[in-house]
Write a structure and sequence with these properties.
Elements (H helix, E strand, L loop, with lengths): L1 E5 L4 H12 L4 E5 L15 E3 L5 H10 L2 E6 L6 H6 L1 H21 L4 E7 L22 H20 L2 E7 L1 E3 L14 H10 L5 E3 L11 E2 L1 E3 H16 L7 E3 L6 E2 H12 L6 E3 L8 E2 L4 H7 L7 H16 L1
Parallel strand pairs: 1-2, 1-4, 2-3, 4-5, 5-6, 6-11, 7-10, 8-13, 9-14
Antiparallel strand pairs: 9-12
Helix pairs in contact: 1-7, 2-4, 4-5, 6-10, 8-10
Protein name: UDP-glucose 4-epimerase
Pathway: Carbohydrate metabolism; galactose metabolism
Cofactor: NAD(+)
Amino acid sequence: MAWLVTGGAGYIGSHVVRAFTEAGIPAVVLDDLSSGIRGFVREDVPLVRGSILDGMLLERAFEEHDVTGVVHLAGFKYAGVSVQRPLHTYLQNVTGTATLLGVMSDRSVDRIVFSSSAAVFGTPDVDLVTEATPTRPESPYGESKLIGEWLLRDQERAVGLRHTSLRYFNVVGSGYPDLYDASPHNLFPLVFDALLDGRTPRINGTDYATPDGTCVRDYIHVSDLAAAHVAAARRLDAGEPLEPVYNLGSGDGVSVREIMTAMAEGTGIPFEPEVAPRRPGDPARIVASGELAARDLYWAMRHTLEQMVSSAWEARRGAAS
């Protein structure tokens, strides 16, 4: 018996897989390696290479590895790019999820932990986002994640699917020296790449209505996120109740300027960031409460900002050497 982790060769997925195996829960990875990295999957973990759009491949994976639960992380994850590629985004994230759920139903696999996103909220008009905050996604990516949550809800009604969706905010750091964030769109790798290339990192906008004028966001360590997946899977295996959605947030947030200061200190490369114009659609503040997740999933911010930076830098620098 094993849990299938779709997208398990990615930055977040590989951390989830290692958290599962270290907790004694067998895992198998399904990944088409379009953005995942083969080396992120240890040799003792089965890897099925392919897409969640391939129903026959999914059927074989479920049969050969006796899959009893799914962590679903696979998908197209770039909110900005999704505006230019909406059909691709919906194909990967909506059709792909529907295909996966169909195979789960056919195979009588009734438990799933879904990778959702803070993008379902769009630009919230509250200081602290909770699970009750209205969802108003502003990109095809955010819309596709919300539709994914609806699909799980509807399958619960139809066939008794047991599920929960974890809404991520900004995932950073590294739990292992060989796992790093390779995204071309996330803040940490963008800053690290600039420093490694001898360029000066930039801040987009310094005139927001925040204490230092820069955007405030939730930043959570990837290992803390992975631990929440293990807790959710264990509760589903035990038949214990879970909320349909959980926000994995810090409750207070960090500004972009504070991130830059921590990066200069953590990397040992002093710099003064360049100031660029605001990016359209960037809200001044998105910070979430993690109280429900703390109650049910033992969620906690176990890493400081300094640890987030230092662990991410060690892994990224190792990959560049």
